[in-house]
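cron nightly-structures :: item 1 of 1
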Amino acid sequence: MRLLRSLFTSPFGRAVLGCLILAGWASFSAGILDGPVARDLRTSAVYAAPGVELDEAAAERIIGNRRVTVAFLEPGADLRSGCDGVRRAADGTVALMISRNGAEFDTYGCALLPGADDENFGRAAVAETVIGSGIDPFVDQPLEAMKLIAINYDGLVKAGTVPDGARTISPSLPRYLIAGAALLAVVAGSSLMYVTAYRAGRSTAVRRAERDTLDDARIELSAAAGVLAQQIIALDGKYSLVTTRTGRRGARMSRRTAAVRREFAQRYRQVASDYTELLGEITKTDAGSGQDVGSLTARVEALSARCRALGRLRLGAG
């Protein structure tokens, strides 16, 4: 119960409820509860029950667009009930229920015209009486009976008993609303898909540009790191020489040379330490974490400059 309450108090739930109400209204106005007679007469002028021999297409052509509807029911059918069942479906017409009774027709007319129960009650009664008059001789010729019904209706129109004009069959308002809602859903859905695709494409392009920039920066970092590694290897060879007691067997170094070599060894050890730390940061960056690639490249270049300066020291005996 709480789930239902929370559902129908949310915006989504209210939207669903509104759609259900609209769908129910549309279904009811479209005749979802109609019987077979009303279902046919809602969109046509003639109905023939199963077993009744009638060319419905020819009968439709005889009636044309007159405001009259005719239902040929099975023998013994309740004509009055049939008339009540088509009041909504055949609204605005003069309806005639017919069933065969031996050698004649049983008929029941109902004028479903505006004001038939009020100011036009008398005219409606005349129309109900006249519309089916004179058709008994054509019990075996239903199309001829249809022609006479059409003539009777035209006479009612000329007498001013029923209003002139053609019958128009149009979709109900809920159908228009549903059609409009469907169109709106298509337009809104297409727009949403376009906006989503546009944003996704734009985001993908931005990410690709950032990825390309990062790849370029990584290439630059790798190149700088490769140069630095070569410098470290070269300096390491010199370091191995200056850390021996004599640079050449039996030769004695001057104080100046010894001081330069001590400075070189001290500075090289610091450079090697910094290189080891920097190499760890580069490894983290390759794994997707660590410092920014640009800052690491700057540190590599700075350390490379220190290596060049260290390599220019004169380490020979003097």
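cron nightly-structures :: done
The first strand starts at residue 46 and ends at 48.
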